[in-house]
Automatic annotation (TrEMBL):
One of its GO terms (molecular function) is D-lactate dehydrogenase (cytochrome) activity. It holds the Pfam family FAD_binding_4. One of its GO terms (biological process) is malate metabolic process. One of its GO terms (cellular component) is mitochondrion. InterPro entries: FAD-bd_oxidored_4_C, FAD-bd_PCMH, FAD-bd_PCMH-like_sf, FAD-bd_PCMH_sub1, FAD-bd_PCMH_sub2, FAD-linked_Oxase-like_C, FAD-oxidored/transferase_4, Oxid_FAD_bind_N. Catalyzes the oxidation of D-2-hydroxyglutarate (D-2-HG) to alpha-ketoglutarate. Also catalyzes the oxidation of other D-2-hydroxyacids, such as D-malate (D-MAL) and D-lactate (D-LAC). Exhibits high activities towards D-2-HG and D-MAL but a very weak activity towards D-LAC. PANTHER family: D-2-HYDROXYGLUTARATE DEHYDROGENASE, MITOCHONDRIAL (PTHR43716:SF1). It catalyses: (R)-malate + A = oxaloacetate + AH2; (R)-lactate + 2 Fe(III)-[cytochrome c] = 2 Fe(II)-[cytochrome c] + pyruvate + 2 H(+). This is D-2-hydroxyglutarate dehydrogenase, mitochondrial. It comes from Daldinia eschscholtzii. Its EC number is 1.1.99.39. Its cofactor is FAD. The keyword Oxidoreductase applies. Its main location: mitochondrion.
Length: 483
């Protein structure tokens, strides 16, 4: 199947791109058969191995000008494209829906500028997040975003999804930290809005539209980001908690007692930790099992002072019986291993074959109720009975508690229509009733596109369509909003 509004790629098109990009390695050509299927497969298949496109041509431009020429040519020839960064997105937006050309940012990976006084970084869209952060670490700065896929995702992809991640609580959203964007519009026009200024109230702030647009209105080629000072002292604690109510109390206390040094407050339920241990087989940080766990990180400037603060916070929570058990990392190895208990969940959930993912924002008091209600619904429907034949392995909850962002995940042995029907629209209706968001940080992609109405009203969606049409009137571009 393909979208017949768009043209089929011909050998003539391929010749144009080969000439334009010069290098052999910049064009993966499955059209003329120059590249084998397995060379193209990684660009067609998403991280979860759930969404698969049928692209036959991958282009890797090395400059903004090349991106501009590619998009102009595609626009004029009605060739559909999809921008791709590290291909770690979790909603199927980074891979072709049909046979779109993949335009990858992997060769656009230069750091263009850094200001040691203000912390402003300007870099190509294809710089890997971890590479940017390591560059900044040497200068005493930190990238204001961190997430489990840091070793593969590109900063252009991060900005395009408005990724939230593990420290949004401390450093805020990319809508605040991204100072400028350079982007190529679908007709090839280069929009240079690479401002390095924190304050710039001169008309509409157009770059904001690109942050979280998921490639629907143009392709980001570079970003300018305000990076905070890297903290000298970073501590982490891992706590076991008996109930969700107590977890809420622990969060309230963390904000009160740890105040300005609190940099992460992450939630994990026992089910997510059980799966992590089953798959990884490593030693648990705490003795016994607890219904809930939280990971608390502090980032400050005085190691002794911060450790003492965190220790007395833990003592206080134990005395008040808000937490049942806890451990603080004593060295870098323990620090990493406690964080991997949280960051590693995503990977381990797919172990049995598949996972249904819901990334939601709900008022914090009701947040975990969604996991319990979903679990009960699947049990009542006979889809989760604890046996090896049952399609559902488990229903787990984890996420960025500090941002009221829950990840409800259903690990399954196989994708199953009955499970899907039990989950949808149930989950979306549940969220909508509480005025929550059906996509807190991952975006709509192909997975959530048709459910936008559960979180946005008609007027808002109507305006979004007008914006899309303004930037991309011929729609020779991956089209994610309902049309
Ligand atoms: P891709 O996956 O390649 O693309 C994502 C979307 O952006 C697609 O729609 C694509 O078309 C578009 N796009 C990519 N590059 C550009 C560009 N230059 N211009 C225009 N559009 C573009 N997300 C969170 O928010 N928080 C997390 O904590 C988090 N943790 C994760 C952990 C793991 C293990 C994994 C696999 C993913 C996680 N994610 C998280 C998902 C997150 O969306 C991505 O990891 C990341 O932000 C996407 O970057 P990418 O370069 O891989 O983009
Ligand atoms: C996370 O917080 O771990 C990511 O958003 C990925 C996921 O939802 O699994
Ligand atoms: Zn997340």
């Amino acid at each position: 199947k393909r979208d017949e509004r768009f043209a089929q790629i011909t050998n003539e098109h391929v010749d144009y791109f080969k000439q334009l990009l010069g290098k052999d390695s910049a064009v993966i050509d499955g059209v003329t058969g120059a590249a084998a299927e397995d060379e193209i497969e990684p660009f067609n298949l998403d991280w979860m191995r759930k969404y698969k496109g049928h692209c036959k041509l991958v282009l890797k431009p090395g400059s903004t000008e090349e991106v501009s020429k590619i998009l102009k040519y595609c626009n004029e020839n009605m060739l559909a494209v999809v921008p791709q960064g590290g291909n770690t997105g979790l909603v199927g937006g980074s891979v072709p829906v049909f046979d779109e050309i993949v335009v990858s940012t992997s060769r656009m990976n230069q750091i263009r500028f850094f200001d040691e006084v203000t912390g402003v970084l300007v870099a190509d869209a294809g710089v890997v997040l971890e590479v940017a952060d390591q560059f900044l670490a040497e200068k005493g700065y930190i990238f204001p975003l961190d997430l489990g896929a840091k070793g593969s995702c590109h900063i252009g992809g991060n900005v395009s999804t408005n990724a939230g991640g593990l420290r949004l609580l401390r450093y805020g959203s990319l809508h605040g930290t991204v100072l400028g964007v350079e982007a190529v519009l679908p007709d090839g026009t280069i929009l240079n809005d690479l401002s390095r200024l924190r304050k710039n109230n001169t008309g509409y702030d157009l770059k904001q539209l690109f942050i979280g647009a998921e490639g629907t209105i143009g392709m980001i080629t570079a970003v300018s980001v305000h990076c905070p000072q890297r903290s000298k002292a970073v501590n982490v604690a891992f706590l076991g908690v008996e109930s969700y109510d107590k977890l809420l109390q622990a969060f309230r206390e963390a904000k009160t007692q740890l105040g300005e040094i609190l940099s992460a407050f992450e939630l994990m339920d026992s089910q997510s930790q059980n799966i992590y241990h089953k798959v990884k087989g490593n030693t648990r940080p705490l003795d016994g099992e607890h219904p809930f766990y939280c990971l608390i990180e502090t980032s400050g400037s005085n190691s002794e002072h911060d450790s003492a603060k965190l220790e007395s916070f833990l003592e206080d929570l134990m005395t008040k019986e808000i937490v049942s058990d806890g451990v603080m990392a004593q060295d870098e190895t323990q620090f990493k291993s406690l964080w991997s208990q949280r960051e590693g969940i995503t990977e381990t959930l797919g172990h049995w074959g598949g996972v249904y993912k819901y990334d939601v924002s709900i008022p914090i008091k009701e947040m975990y109720q969604l996991v319990e209600d979903t679990r009960k619904r699947l049990e009542d429907a006979g889809l989760k009975d604890g046996t090896e034949e049952s399609p559902v392995v488990d229903v787990v909850g984890y996420g960025h508690m500090g941002d009221c962002n829950l990840h409800l995940n259903i690990a399954v042995r196989r994708y199953d229509k009955k499970v899907e029907e039990a989950l949808e629209p149930f989950v979306y209706e549940w969220i909508s009733k509480r005025n929550g968001s059906i996509s807190a940080e991952h975006g709509l992609g192909i997975a959530k596109k048709k459910y936008i109405g559960y979180s946005r009203n008609e007027t808002t969606v109507g305006l979004m369509k007008q914006i899309k049409n303004l930037y991309d009137p011929v729609s020779a571009y991956s089209f994610l909003l309902p049309h």
